[in-house]
User: Fold Rhomboid family intramembrane serine protease from Streptomyces shenzhenensis.
Amino acid sequence: MAAESAVTTCYRHTKVESHVRCTRCDRYICPNCMREAAVGHQCVDCVKEGARSVRQARTAFGGRITTVPVVTGVLIGLNVLAYLAELVRPAVVDSFGMLGRGLVGGDGTHYLWQYPYGPDVHAEGLAGGEWYRLLTGPFLHLPATETPFGIVHIVLNMVSLWSLGRVVEAQLGRVRFLALYLLSALGGSVLVLLLAPDTLTVGASGAIFGLGAAYYVMARRLGYDMNAVNRYMAGLLLWLLISAGFASWQGHLGGLLAGGTLTLAYAYAPRDGRRTLVQAGAGVAVLALLAVLTWAKVSELTGGAA
Assistant:
């Protein structure tokens, strides 16, 4: 009598009889574990291992290729949510808008800064330790309840953010784009602190000017037709001059400088294994510079008590 042949089973489902082997690891696999390959079938584990070994496609600036502007959409959503909070509670602007120095009394009345100040008031703004205003201010906008320009302010900024953000995000990838946006916003706040510390400012314009600078740098690096790009930048700079009469030109210029500086590092970092390190280092350097400038100015405003 012939010996009964051994039954082979799937290596993942040991109770399922199987007669097909993975072409990569040669283990038996059942139909649920089979994945089509160029030749034959592979198991789930080998397919995962192969995916890890495949080099991911990157943009010209080292970011992962993405077709959906997720970060841009999230940033717009955060700005809109902050604006809705302002409508419900207008005091949000006074509490979270960008302000270098100010005084507030026990009844909530705001006063211009003087140092030293009496016991009936206390410091507010960065001079009062409210460093979070550097980033919360750029997510707020002029309240519609106080000025007709309020709703126009946020609408224009969000339209600009959508137009520029989805282009820049597609080129930089999500992580680099988010770093660019936040550092541009921070750069705008820091220049406001340095040049107009007594002025309460709000708006995403500084970050958007940073995106505009990034768009210009990337266009030159990629060899775009610069005629249209130059016209766009001329319009942006013209708006910078016009807005000086009624908006925070310091915030606009600070965002422009921070965004442009960081994007130069993104665009001209060596295209080898050092690229990510150089780009990350540039981001840290910009952040460190802004932090030092902020600390120095707040120390000056508070007589060294920062």
Remarks:
- DSSP finds ten helices and seven strands in the chain.
- The beta strands are 20-21, 28-29, 35-36, 41-42, 102-105, 110-111, 121-124.
- The domain at 70-301 is CATH 1.20.1540.10 (Rhomboid-like fold).
